[in-house]
Q: What sequence folds into this?
């Protein structure tokens, strides 16, 4: 066991949710190791955001694992499928979004678990939340519980009962506005983060599901949205 | 749902166990999609074996996903740590081997799950067995059960109850000799497979745990070991 504060591996996408999750892990006293993925996604600008967030919030180490989810196809985030735009909330709330990447969180958490085992860490953090789990199967509370069980069985540390793995999902029951309030209270600078599925010249499109949820979150929280959108007409619509 | 026989994703390392597992999946009537990994392992000769086995047994498709487990270090199979040689059975049976790769099966199965979801497959096959699970935490029956539970929760197909994921580990309770007998009965040509952790000019070393277990398996099954070992002196010792 390493000395000092307990270590945690935190999945960091560069988006609003994972930045807030990292701030919570730091507040809770963990020495944080941030893990990002280059997975053939179109929004490589996310990785630059992850790097900025990791540096600003202060992690021990930030690694980016290169994996290729395109091998198996099947998502607007990794293949050449159009990202849906300007969907209503009821459309977003129904069914599994086309932007769903098969088994993505399972793959990400598996890598986090591997790193945790090497680090002697027993805590993993992931920024899934109530808004996501209406659509993504691997964002549901029962999924989080099942992965935590698996982690204890999958690892040498778990098998030898040297520690108990915990998968923390501190945003699980929060809506976007609650997350933003929490992050602002913890000093997260959301201008460093990036949520958009379909950026235009590194600026958020303002129309994809991620942009719409983010904008509504700031509106609901009554906090000015610091995001720079590609289309200024939308900044007028959502002041 | 695709028409025709049910599809299965079979993890195929090129070793004796996974070749036998593939033969069992084929016998059971599955249309098999074989999945291998290039994970920075020293024994790249394994991948050539996987390709030979996939072709000989007849899969629909064989893919090799490139992943880099060295990112996190921590195993003789991926880092520059000496592979232990000529260990006694009691040494092998105690503790977690240095050749253990953190969270390896979890990562492999996560990729298999992603491919299964894209294929519309609900069946995954992995060749873990009783000999392995004395040492590797992610080869135990309770681990297999936990991953099967996770798979159902992790995926769109599972969440929408279009099908029930099954993780098959048909060798789970078999020793090496039983596996060899089963494979021979199913017509597996074991000269195509490769088990050695530390090959010498593409030949099995004859001394690492994998070689020792394989040799003893053939001895116990009273089946001639068709493996070509680098050191002929050992073929004399284990005729």
A:
């Amino acid at each position: 066991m390493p000395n000092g504060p307990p270590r945690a591996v935190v999945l960091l996408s560069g988006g609003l949710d994972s930045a807030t999750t990292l701030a919570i892990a730091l507040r809770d006293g963990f020495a944080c190791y941030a893990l990002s993925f280059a997975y053939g996604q179109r929004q490589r600008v996310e990785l630059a955001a992850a790097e900025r967030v990791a540096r600003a919030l202060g992690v021990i180490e930030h690694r980016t694992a290169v994996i290729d989810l395109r091998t198996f196809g099947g998502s607007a985030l990794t293949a050449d499928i159009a990202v849906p735009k300007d969907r209503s909330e009821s459309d977003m709330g129904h069914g599994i979004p086309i932007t769903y990447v098969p088994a993505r969180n399972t793959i990400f958490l598996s890598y986090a678990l591997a790193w945790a085992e090497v680090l002697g860490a027993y805590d993993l953090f992931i920024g899934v939340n109530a808004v996501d789990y209406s659509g993504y199967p691997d964002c549901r509370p029962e999924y989080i519980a099942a992965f935590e069980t698996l982690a204890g069985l999958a690892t040498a540390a778990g098998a030898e009962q040297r520690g108990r793995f915990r998968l923390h999902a501190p945003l699980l029951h929060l809506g976007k506005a609650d997350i933003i309030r929490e992050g602002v209270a913890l000093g997260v600078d959301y201008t460093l983060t990036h949520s958009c599925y379909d950026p235009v010249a590194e600026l958020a499109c303002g129309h994809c599901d991620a942009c719409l949820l983010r904008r509504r979150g700031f509106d609901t929280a009554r906090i000015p949205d610091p995001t720079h959108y590609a289309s200024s007409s939308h900044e007028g619509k959502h002041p």
Summary: Chain A touches chain B through 43 residues (CB under 8 Å). Confidence is low (pLDDT under 50) at residues 233-239 of chain A. Residues 104-119 of chain A form the longest helix (16 residues). The CA atoms of residues 57 and 159 of chain A lie 33 Å apart.
